[in-house]
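[User]
Protein folding is very new to me. Any chance you could explain this protein sequence and its structure tokens? I have pasted everything here:
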Amino acid sequence: MPIYNFDRNIIEVLAHDEQPNPSFTESDKLTVIYKADSIITCIATIKDAAYNLEDSSSIEGSRLFVCVDNYVLCLQLPNLELVWSTEVDEATCFSLHKLEDDFITRGELCIARIDKNGNIKWQFRGADIFLNLNDDDTPELEIKSDHLSLTDFNGTKYKVGFDGTLLYDNYGKQKSPTR
């Protein structure tokens, strides 16, 4: 089974996008090493910093779905030609997770559900950003059998249905974290 290795300049990848992200530079690139339907390495180099995107990428058939900055990109394999791009968060996108026939993204400001064509089905915002710096190792996003379990920066817990409906939150019910 062959192993593929591609480096592409992100501006070149987004050249035909209707709304390209103006924050990318000529030196920013996307490196993908994969075989068949599994990613070996997926790294974005943006503004001279390297970001491991293995938790932010997925291969489905001949397409690679990957979070880069605040976008999810769908790239045709093997040459990384852009199929579509969708802005899923106003700040950044940390991770991409498979859910049924769609994807869940965890951004800094919101959780989103998108389909395989890049259409946003819903977005959910919490009371604070979805980043946990507390010492309790609570994940910001867990996919349960019938809902998403979310934790924001202040420790607020949310249960969100797969349709984006808020099922529960403890906002204002917990003590503020000690900093």
In short: The chain has one domain: 4-129.
